[in-house]
C-alpha cells in the first residue's frame, strides 16, 4: 500500500515537472485565463480616475477606491483571492504597469516549480514487514451507555410477545393473542 502511494506520487511529481516546461509566462496558465476573463468583464466599467500615483477611483454600480501601493480595493476580492479584481486590472492597464507585479507570488511559475521540486526518497519495504516488537491489539470495546432495556419505550415496529391472561368472557386461562378466548377454544 505504501509502495503504491509512493510510486503514484513520484509519477505525479514527474508529470507536473514536465508539464511546466511548455509554459512561457511568469504566471500559471490557469491564472492567466482567469485574468483574461476578468479583463473582459472589466471592459464595461468606466475609465478610472487617478487621484495620486497609486490611488484610483473606479465608478461602476458603486464607487470603488483602488490603492495599488497597498494592494487593496474597496470590493475586497483582491485581498481574498490574491488575484486582482476587474477594478484593479483596469487601473493597472490604464497606468501601464505590468500585471505580474500585482498578483500574489503563490500563483507564479517559480512557486509551482518549488512545490514539485522535492524528491521522494525510496523506502526499504523490508524494514516494515519484519516486526521485532509485540503485535498491537485493538482496545476492548465497551457497550455504550444507553437506556436500560426494561425501561425502553415500546416502538411501533416491535413484535409483542405472547403472555398468559384470564379471559373476561369465559374466565379461562389462555395465551394472549389478537383473538378472543372464545375464538381460540372454538378452533
UniProtKB/TrEMBL annotation:
Gene Ontology molecular function, alphabetical: zinc ion binding
Record bears the keyword Plastid: no
Keywords, sorted A to Z: Metal-binding, Zinc, Zinc-finger
Domain of life: Eukaryota
Segments forming domain SWIM-type: 64-96
Annotated PANTHER family: MUTATOR TRANSPOSASE MUDRA PROTEIN (PTHR31973:SF187), POLYPROTEIN, PUTATIVE-RELATED (PTHR31973)
Record-given protein name: Zinc finger protein
Species in which this protein is naturally found: Thalictrum thalictroides
